[in-house]
Amino acid sequence: MNPAAVAEVPKERIPPNALTVGTQLPAQGPGGQTRTVRVKEIKEQTVVLDMNHPLAGKTLTFEVKVLSVESPAE
Predict the structure, then answer these.
(1) Contact of 25 with 36, CB cutoff 8 Å
(2) SS3 18
(3) Taking the alpha carbons of 26, 56, 61, 69 in that order, is the dihedral positive or negative?
(4) Is the pLDDT score of 7 beyond 80?
(5) What is the CA radius of gyration of the chain?
(6) Is 54 helix (H, G, I), strand (E, B) or coil?
(7) Buried b / exposed e along 36-71 (16+ C-beta atoms within 10 A)
(8) pLDDT tens digits along 35-61
(9) Are 33 and 67 in contact (CB under 8 A)?
(10) Which of 67 and 2 is assigned the larger pLDDT?
(11) Which of 1, 18, 23, 34 suits a disulfide with 39, CB 3.0-4.6 Å?
(12) CA 57 to chain centre
């Protein structure tokens, strides 16, 4: 998880119905791309938004099935 991917914005910039911790909101990145941000904390005058990927900082476990094994090309 990247601590720099957290921003504090004025509360009036967030829709009133989204002022709940955990709410996901669409946002536009600096290059114009759309991304999802989550409300991390609500303060008296500001809202803390987390722009990290939802899986950032999580341990991921994958199950894989090997379908074939080939000798390396020489």
Answers:
(1) yes
(2) helix
(3) positive
(4) yes
(5) 19
(6) coil
(7) ebebbeeeeebbebbbbeeeeeeeeeeeeeeeeeee
(8) 899 999 999 999 999 999 888 889 999
(9) no
(10) 67
(11) 23
(12) 11
For the chain, how many structural domains are there in total? 1
Residues 6+ positions from 25 with CB-CB distance below 8 Å = 14, 15, 18, 36, 37, 38, 39, 49
Structure tokens at 72: 């390396």
Whether this model's pTM surpasses 0.90: no
Q: Which residues pair with 8 in a beta bridge?
A: 48
**Eight-state DSSP code of residue 12:** G
- Please give the residue range of the domain that contains residue 12: 1-74
Asked whether 36 and 5 are in contact (CB, 8 A), the reply is: no
CB 29: neighbour CB atoms within 10 A? 10
Residue 69: which CATH number?
2.40.10.330
Average pLDDT of the chain to the nearest whole number:
91
